[in-house]
Amino acid sequence: MKDLLITTAINEKVKKGQRIYLLSNWCNTLEMKELLKYNKVETLPYHWKSKEKFNKDYYYLNDLYELNLKILSNLLGKYNKTSKDKNYWRIIIGPWLRQFSDIAFDRYSQIMTVKNKKNLYTNIFECNPDDLISDNFKDFYIESKKDLWNHHLIGIIWKDLGLNYKNITQRKINFKKEISSFQQIIKNIINKIVFRIQKNNKYIFHSTNISFQKLLKINFKLKQFPFKTYELNEYTFSNQIFSNLRKEIKKLLCNRNEFEVILSKLIAIYLPRIYLEDFQNNKSHILKILPQNPKKIFTTHAYLKDDLFKIWVAEKKIFNNAKYHIIQHGGCVRTCKLDQEEDHFINSSDGFISWGWNLKNRFIINSLPSLQLQNQKIRNSRDGDIVIIMASYPRYFYIHYSVPISDDYLDYLKNIEYIFKKIFILNRQKVKLRFAKEDSGWEAEKRLSQKIKYIKKDKNNLSLMETLKKSKLAFCTANSTVFLETLSWNFPTLVFIDLRFYEIRDDVFQDFMKLNKVGICFFNIESALEHLSNINNDIDRWWYDNDLQLARKEFINKFANNSYQYLDKWLQFIKKI
Predict the structure, then answer these.
(1) What is the pLDDT of residues 195-226, one digit of tens each?
(2) Is there a smaller number of Cβ atoms within 10 Å at the N or the C end of the chain?
(3) pTM higher than 0.90, yes or no?
(4) Which residues contact 28 (CB under 8 A, 6 or more apart)?
């Protein structure tokens, strides 16, 4: 009897006594564990367990991305009768091309760990390649974290490598057409009204995390109508597929090795319609709606999933000489050893706006007070709980940056379990977990509930600020935005960063060490818990120590600046650029 390889967490029929291999721990859902409890199961080691390999592959994939971007820019520009400029297409297809290429490399590399096992086969759903084409980046982004999408991708790679498989009943990806909710309808109406009113505005702020109050002040000073806009989602799509052009893409892309040959085929199959078949219609549509002659464009989020906005920006930047600025929206930018998105911010914009930091010899980065972080101080509750704040990451790798990827998250959960149990005893049971709003497929709450019988969780409907007001101390467990928020609010905070997952860039590690010296940040779990034990009975005395407050202020001025003087500094910057 041949051994069966299960490639995703989709349940499959298994024979009694059959040896089962799981391609990765991304298959290991709680349901899968229950299904296979009577089989002999082996989970294959993850190819990026070695961070040295992870980092090395990052630079290879970066170079490959640049080569393929140049080829696609020329081809798509020629076909769509628009700019062939690499920067034009970097704005539009760059996020998809880089993410998809890295995802494909991850799945290919994981298959290579099992390639030499001869007595092995896998089941592959029959599929029409045309059914794998998403409409836009948002559809791709949602589906790429799901089992069925990954099953099809892995299946194509598996077949191209000539490995053993059995075809099973066809299962088609259901790219759900977004049904507009009442809230979305209202947002669309607001967008139409706002874009009509601000047709002649020179300064455009779209899809930002900036509060309406701050937008109001900035626009009032700029002498233009204040507005807040939302993600654009009124696309026009057809059912046509340009098969010959997709074949040409496959033929022209880099093919220096086995992986690149497979990737060329995959890009030709998966390239979203918005960049090829339906580019012209959507471009004409959005150019009629959005302002015609902006001078400066700002966003925090639309650079990624808002394809209509990206097309408009590329047109205005290349043909109208508008200046395009991306504003920082997350915490691990600049501090992660690797950050794929940071590269895109810098290379696709005229200016990336950070929350206080800068880079030597990179004049494109501008340091300004954050418009996202709230200018507020929060007092802790001496009788409140210690709240352990958790992070969440998808089961499937989806982007290259220094955080727990794939089954690293299971080790991350072991840390959480250990921390919770220790604090439960230390703080007389007054401890709770704050789970991320999105579970991302790891079933974190269920897994921890199996390990911790007395688990207490924070209510997800409370904002972080509301939770902190009822808490004694925040115990942050990730290199993320959260601990920057708590530090900027001067709320008592302990940060534990496991360097196995959260590699920190060499030139900022000294900044974290300064927090370590005053007892805020720790890289060893036992040291963090020992320090908590020492300060637990008098947190205020520790937190308001002069040396600690100086270190905190120095750190937030660089990484989480929320100065009350934001308005003058932003206006000065906007009028200058």
Answers:
(1) 887 788 899 999 888 888 888 899 899 988 87
(2) N
(3) yes
(4) 9, 22, 43, 407, 410
Burial class (CB in 10 A: 0-12, 13-18, 19+), 31: exposed
- Give the separation between CA 558 and CA 487, rounded to whole angstroms: 12
SS3 188: helix
Q: Are 137 and 95 in contact (CB under 8 A)?
A: yes
Q: Give all strands (DSSP E) within 177-263, no chain letters.
A: 203-206
Collect contacts of 69-72 with beta carbons under 8 A, ≥24 apart: 69/93, 69/94, 69/97, 71/252, 71/253, 71/254, 72/97, 72/249, 72/253, 72/267
SS3 440: coil
What is the amino acid identity at position 247? Answer: K
The two three-digit tokens of residue 16, written as one number: 């009694």
Asked if 55 contacts 70 with a C-beta cutoff of 8 angstroms, the reply is no
Among 468, 508, 519, residue whose Cα is nearest residue 489 = 468
For residue range 166-203, what is the model confidence (pLDDT) as tens digits? 998 877 787 765 555 677 788 888 888 888 877 888 99
- Of 13, 14, 19, nearest to 43 by C-alpha is 19
Tell me how far the alpha carbon of residue 408 is from its chain's centroid.
Answer: 16
Burial (CB count within 10 angstroms: exposed 0-12, middle 13-18, buried 19+), residue 217:
middle
> Side chain identity at 408, as an amino acid letter?
D
